[in-house]
């Protein structure tokens, strides 16, 4: 894994950002820049988890006004990675073959953003198959007013069923130790939508960047948004557009309301604007700042007779999960059990497909996990009325 460090000598243009997140901490220090370190790597999904991607449209049309290298194949493919970090809003790329009849295993990226692919060194796929090629991490340098800033991309090309797909995920992230009060906490900034910035806000969760704060082995993930809740205090967070630092400032005159939940609920995440607040209620009560909310998810945990841990997670609420918190008032959220289980059966020729669907009170989808993982699929017993046919089949996921 390639690791680099960079700091800024000038003040960078900033955007107000933040998140809702409960962590164990005391009051934060005054608003100060807390610098983070930049890392890059090929297997960022293994390090960062389920990060988002940007789909890059491909065409055989040669882009006008772009200097091109000599291609080996007769049908190179061209695409634009979209990023607000360059004036044009895009970085050109071209896919080529190292052999005329081979896979698309060669990549040209306008890494210095000068609209010239002819001056670029070809990037060879580190993994190339007949229908798929992987590249990265590929460095792109943004020429900003306070100096150059490096960013990395991991890219995957595939062609299944004669359909070209080219996707980019972030190959870099920021990480470091920040001070909250007198405590040290680990902080990570993730470019969730793979567009080169680290402070994107959106009502669409898929377009929000992510931030993680917590202890070394207990980082809590939330969206970049409007506010950050740390212990009993709320802070405004200013995040550098390129992710280089975070700055916290205490919010003032915050008003709260009380949330009443079933005592079986162990965790509630509620989204307000772009911020996600996570509360772990005590005996069915918690509190949130005054405002309009959308339930993001809830969790309840149990142990069976053998002591094994099971978790139910309700998510994907839609509009039915909206609620309001008023100053000094109580809001009752009837979420959690009971859960409805249905089965769908589809027939295609001699093949039957079975789908188990779990839904909550508001129609939200339910995920059941056992020991932190998906439990094994159930078995199906088919028996006729006479007992002459009695067989048990094992299901498989996928």
Keywords:
Immunoglobulin-like, six-stranded antiparallel beta sheet, mainly beta, 51% strand, 1 helix, disordered N terminus, 1% helix, 398 residues
Give a structural overview.
- The chain is mainly beta.
- The protein folds into three domains: 2-41 and 172-250, no CATH class; 54-170, no CATH class; 255-398, Immunoglobulin-like, CATH 2.60.40.
- The protein is 1% helix and 51% strand.
- It has one helix and 34 strands.
- It has one helix spanning 44-48; strands spanning 2-4, 14-17, 33-35, 37-40, 54-55, 58-59, 77-82, 90-96, 106-109, 123-124, 127-128, 132-144, 147-160, 163-170, 172-180, 183-190, 210-215, 218-223, 228-230, 233-240, 245-250, 256-260, 267-272, 275-279, 285-289, 291-303, 309-315, 322-325, 330-332, 340-348, 351-359, 365-370, 379-383, 390-394.
- A six-stranded antiparallel beta sheet has the order 1-4-15-16-17-18, with no helix packed on it. Strands 23, 24, 26, 27, 28 and 32 form a six-stranded antiparallel beta sheet that branches.
- A hairpin with a 5-residue loop joins strand 26 (291-303) and strand 27 (309-315).
- It is flat and about 65 Å long.
Task: Indicate the topology.
Elements: E1 2-4, E2 14-17, E3 33-35, E4 37-40, H1 44-48, E5 54-55, E6 58-59, E7 77-82, E8 90-96, E9 106-109, E10 123-124, E11 127-128, E12 132-144, E13 147-160, E14 163-170, E15 172-180, E16 183-190, E17 210-215, E18 218-223, E19 228-230, E20 233-240, E21 245-250, E22 256-260, E23 267-272, E24 275-279, E25 285-289, E26 291-303, E27 309-315, E28 322-325, E29 330-332, E30 340-348, E31 351-359, E32 365-370, E33 379-383, E34 390-394
């Amino acid at each position: 894994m390639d690791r680099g460090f960079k700091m800024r000598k000038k003040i960078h243009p900033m955007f107000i950002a933040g998140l809702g997140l409960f962590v164990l901490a005391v009051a934060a220090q005054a608003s100060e820049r807390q610098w983070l370190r930049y890392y890059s790597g090929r297997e960022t999904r293994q390090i960062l988890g389920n990060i988002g991607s940007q789909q890059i449209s491909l065409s055989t049309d040669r882009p006008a006004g772009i200097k091109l290298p000599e291609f080996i194949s007769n049908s190179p493919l061209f695409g634009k990675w979209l990023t607000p970090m360059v004036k044009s809003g895009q970085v050109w790329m071209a896919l080529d073959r190292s052999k005329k009849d081979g896979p698309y295993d060669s990549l040209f990226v306008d890494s210095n953003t000068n609209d010239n692919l002819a001056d670029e060194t070809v990037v060879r796929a580190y993994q190339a198959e007949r229908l798929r090629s992987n590249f990265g991490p590929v460095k792109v340098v943004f020429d900003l007013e306070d100096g150059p800033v490096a960013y990395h991309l991991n890219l995957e090309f595939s062609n299944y069923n004669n359909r070209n797909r080219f996707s980019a995920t972030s190959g870099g992230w920021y990480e470091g130790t920040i001070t909250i009060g007198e405590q040290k906490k680990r902080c990570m900034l993730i470019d969730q939508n793979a567009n080169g910035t680290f402070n994107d806000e959106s009502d669409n969760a898929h377009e929000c960047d992510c931030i993680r704060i917590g202890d070394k082995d207990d980082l809590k993930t939330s969206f970049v948004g409007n506010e950050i809740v740390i212990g009993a205090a709320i802070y405004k967070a200013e995040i550098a557009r390129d992710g280089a630092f975070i700055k916290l400032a205490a919010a003032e005159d915050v008003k709260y309301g009380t949330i009443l939940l079933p005592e079986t609920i162990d965790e509630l995440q509620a989204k307000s604007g772009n911020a996600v607040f996570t509360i772990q209620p005590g005996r069915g009560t918690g509190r949130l700042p005054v405002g309009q909310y959308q339930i993001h998810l809830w969790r309840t945990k149990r142990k069976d007779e053998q002591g094994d841990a099971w978790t139910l997670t309700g998510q994907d609420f839609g509009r039915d999960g909206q609620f309001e918190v008023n100053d000094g008032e109580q809001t009752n959220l009837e979420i959690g059990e009971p859960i409805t289980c249905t089965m769908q059966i589809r027939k295609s020729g001699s093949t039957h497909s079975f789908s188990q669907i779990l839904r909550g009170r508001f129609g939200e989808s339910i995920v059941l996990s056992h020991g932190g993982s998906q439990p094994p699929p159930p078995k199906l017993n088919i028996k006729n009325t006479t007992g002459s046919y009695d067989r048990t089949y094992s299901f498989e996921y996928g």
